[in-house]
Amino acid sequence: MENLGFALDCNGGDFAPLETVRGGIQAARELKCRVYLVGDREEIKSILEKSGEFGNPRLEIVHAPDNVGMEEPPSSVLRKKNSSLYVAGKLVRDGVAQGLISAGNTGAVLAVGKFIVGTEEEVERPAIGVALPNPKGRTVLIDVGANVDSKPKHLVQFAVIGHTYAQEILGIEKPRVGLLSIGEEEGKGNELVKETYPLLKQTGLNFLGNAEGRDIYAGTFDVIVCDGFIGNVILKASESLGLAILQMIKEEIDKSFLARFGAFLLLPALNRFRKKADFTEYGGTPLLGAKKPVIITHGKANAKAIKNAIRVAAEFLTQDFNRKLVENLRSLIPHEARV
Fold first, then answer.
1. Which NCBIfam families does this UniProt record tie to the protein (predicted)?
2. For residue 282, which of 19, 59, 165, 202 sits 20 to 30 Å off, Cα-Cα?
């Protein structure tokens, strides 16, 4: 990874710039890559000096004092040309950096990914894919927010994009692909699902038919395709449910000594489970179809999450993901399924 460089938006996220810069430092140390720290020069310099990393040749400060707030419309980033996110996108577009990582405004990151970094020629709409845990491994849910209104041909592309992600990044040889619907029988679902189903049957994918909501975490499919509106609702509801369950368990454990003792005995298993579900372990979600890796990490990302987001970006490059994606889009989708 020594020849790879990544543009890190140091103004984005709840704990920026401190945790973001620390994550960049960890990545430079452990991954041996170059990190362009994009943000307020003096703030970043101060953090590097306190960390004893100022002057590290793998860490370069790129001054960009402005920020795109979470409350601002995503399109504002295209006007704020001194914002850290816009400048980071330009570094990738111009070939200075090979990937972009941000914990900032998700919509703004999408705008930069689409319009500054750009998308692969074969990709009509890039999509966000998230690898959700299941008892057997991971299930790719795509799209989870990049496209709130999609046509059948877009969902077909999302299926191929998700297939490539599962195959090349997760190592699943023949991913099982499903189309999210309200019933497993063909003909169930809304008009979008009904029109997409026969198109997916025509592809070279391992398409197994409709998937229901219960399949998302069951491991019965490796890739589940939906439009970004539904996918985003599922993702945020899942996150909220996970936090609620943890809170309720904690409250029950605190009610008695016996429960606390039992929890102590279960601690190793609970820690292993938490690691499987911990977003900091996985870094972030990729904007699949962008010309270069664009990784959107959680707004509450700490240094570990930032480092792992950079690691994820590097994996997409070392696995030559985009070349394989373009090949799959050309070979797996027949002409009649493209219209």
1. plsX
2. 59
